[in-house]
Amino acid sequence: MKFGTKAIHAGVEPDPSTGAIMTPIYQTSTYVQKSPGDHKGYEYSRTHNPTRTALQNALAELENGKHGLCFASGMAAIDAIIKMLKPGDEVISTNDLYGGSYRIFTKIFQNYGIKFHFTDMSDLSKVEALVNENTRMIWVETPTNPLLNIIDIKGCAAISKKHNLLLVADNTFATPYLQNPLDLGADIVMHSLTKYMAGHSDVVMGAVIVKDDELHEKLAFIQNACGGTPGPQDCFLVLRGIKTLHIRMERHCENGRAVAQYLINHPKVEKVLWPGLPDHPSHQIAKEQMRSYGGMVSFALKGDRMEDAIATLERFRYFSLAESLGGVESLCGHPASMTHASIPSAERLKAGLSDSLIRLSVGIEDIEDLLADLEQAIG
Ligand SMILES: *Cc1c(COP(=O)(O)O)cnc(C)c1O
What's this protein's family per the entry (predicted)? Predict the structure, then answer.
């Protein structure tokens, strides 16, 4: 099956009891047994639920994996992955990481004796230099937020194989439409399904996808034992969302390109970050690793004044000022005062996260309207 066919057909079967073409929302907590242990594979909905099973199977196929596991949020998925580790274990990750991941690593799991290293992963020798006998995991996120840097997944996989580590890839920004980390050598793919996968800004959910049976067993044990599972209604919404993933992504990529091109020619714009631009620092890796470049675009204004960025954000009509990304509607955000406000300003600036940086999640509206909105908002 090619990708679009998979997006529509993967994991779902007509409902066995009625033939319903859409997997029903099995809004039930428990399942009747004929005799103790004599049941149809379902005992309790924290452990298994048919609507969730359909979604998990669909996700496994889309990522070219074997097993999918869904969680109540992207953070709950991250939580389950790190719970495979023990005190004393070490993780190497990027210094340009989703804020929530950085927070759970440093404010929660560090207290349980797990050590996290953050480094510039565009230089793989820096990654390998941090490996020691306690290292268990490399955690990659690519493209990164909001600088849209691209990390070489294959390169990280070579290091993780050599030292017998687990390689995890947060594939939220790219989605399986743009890249399949398992094919590039990752052991575990993680998603915030909240973003592009569900795609309609109406659900919060996360997922983990693996090929390996033993890894699946460990993660499924944690999923059930710790209980961070989603409800069937939300699983239904994500199942519906992924049926249009390929056509949404195609338009996100097209609109992203048009917006990036418009911005590089704008006299008030200082720089534009979009991995599809030939002068983007990791364009070459993006070209090799991704099928296209996505709909996330960041840009900074000339003069780099925070008040100019804020005034621009207030003027947008179709780009709504909000956290999150990946929905059909365009969103805009100001990392310096919103998602990355907790980082001291000197550190922020050093990382390239300037005061006037605006992040756009370019939606799938008509591009003429989006460009007109940029025109009037930037002025
Ligand atoms: C949003 C996000 C998460 C967290 O997911 P939630 O569904 O909000 O819990 C993790 N990683 C990335 C890259 C994200 O954008």
Answer: Belongs to the trans-sulfuration enzymes family.
Task: Please check whether residues 279 and 312 belong to one and the same domain.
Answer: yes
**Does residue 278 sit in the same domain as residue 176?**
no
Ligand 1, CB cutoff 6 Å, lining residues: 73-75, 98, 100-101, 141, 145, 170, 172-173, 192, 194-195, 204, 206
| Pairing between β-strand 331-333 and β-strand 320-321 as defined by DSSP bridges | parallel
Q: How far is the CA of 259 from the centre of ligand 1 (A)?
A: 24
Residue in 93, 101, 108, 192 to alter for ligand 1 test, most ligand atoms within 8 A of Cβ? 192
Tell me what pLDDT residue 193 has: 98
Q: Show which of 240, 273, 296 is a domain's final residue.
A: 240
> Which parts of the chain register pLDDT below 70?
none
- Among 175, 208, 240, where does a domain finish? 240
223 three-state secondary structure: helix
Phi, psi of 59, rounded to the nearest 5 degrees:
-65, -40
User: Is 291 found in the same domain as 143?
Assistant: no
Per residue in 324-340, pLDDT tens? 999 999 999 999 998 88
- Residue-range definition of the domain harbouring residue 252: 245-378
Residue 101 sits in the same domain as residue 27: yes
| Strand order from edge to edge, sheet including 320-321 | 269-273, 296-301, 358-361, 331-333, 320-321
Q: What pLDDT score was predicted for residue 350?
A: 81
What is the model's pLDDT at position 203?
A: 98
**CB contact set of 133 (below 8 Å; sequence gap of 6+):** none
